[in-house]
Every structure is written in C-alpha cells, then in structure tokens.
Amino acid sequence: MSEQKVEIMTRLIESEELVKAVGYNESNFLEQPIITDPSSLIYENIYPYRFVPDLNTHQKTFITLSFRGYKPVDGYYKSGLVYFNVITHKDLIKTDYGALRYDFIIQKIDELMNNTRGLGIGNTQFHSMDELYIDEKYMGMFIAYKLLDFS
Hints:
By secondary structure, the protein is of the alpha+beta class. 23% of the residues lie in helices and 33% in strands. The protein has helices spanning 2-14, 16-23, 101-113; strands at residues 46-47, 61-73, 77-89, 125-133, 138-150. The mean pLDDT is 87.
C-alpha cells in the first residue's frame, strides 16, 4: 500500500488546478501564481492517511486519504477502497468558478483517478461519494475508488 499512497500523492500534487484549490484561500485561486513547490502541501493540507487536522488554528482546505476494506481475492490479489476526504472551512467554500471549492477538488480527483491505471492491476473504479460534516466551521465531501492489486 505504501507504493499506492506515494503514487496517489504524486498524482494530487502534479495537478496544478488541484494544488491551487487546496493551497490558496482566495475565491479566485486559479488566478493565483503557480505554487513552485507543491510537495510543501503534503502534511500541511494533504495527508496520506485519515486525519482530522486542528481546525481551530487557520482557515484551510484539506485532503486526507483513507485505505479501507482490503481483502484477499482468490489468494492472488487484494481488493480495497481508497477514500479521498476533502474538507474546507465554510468561509472558503464559495469560488469564482461556479462550483463549491470541495466540489471543484472532488472533480479534479475524479479526473485523476476514475478508470486510470498505475495503482494496481486494471483500472480504478468509482465506488461512492457523499457529504462530510466535521463541525459548524468545516464540511466537505468524500469520494471513494475500488482498487485491485497483487498480493
């Protein structure tokens, strides 16, 4: 799973639009300068594990990953789900792009993940998506994909 986590994190920070949506608080985040070191967002805004950051310090947007439901398939493969939890402060939700910030990020994640290769064998498959409510200041969405890999 470590290789899958690294691959997923790499995909996330290679998306300039996703990086801007997570890294900038402005509603016109796409008009902001390119973030020259997107890896700086890892463990600041993007976490390779399920994590609820200290939400009382700053208004921010977060992506956290969660790998769940792994099980053997015919003794040769393992199947599981990867969840992307997108959480944003209520004051950062509205954007200038006709989409809520977390919806914009979920769309970018889906472009990177759905029916793509490189995270095991076969294509990743969309599994589910739903709202997340953290508290009165933070909310968002999760999106999950099914992965199949060698044991």
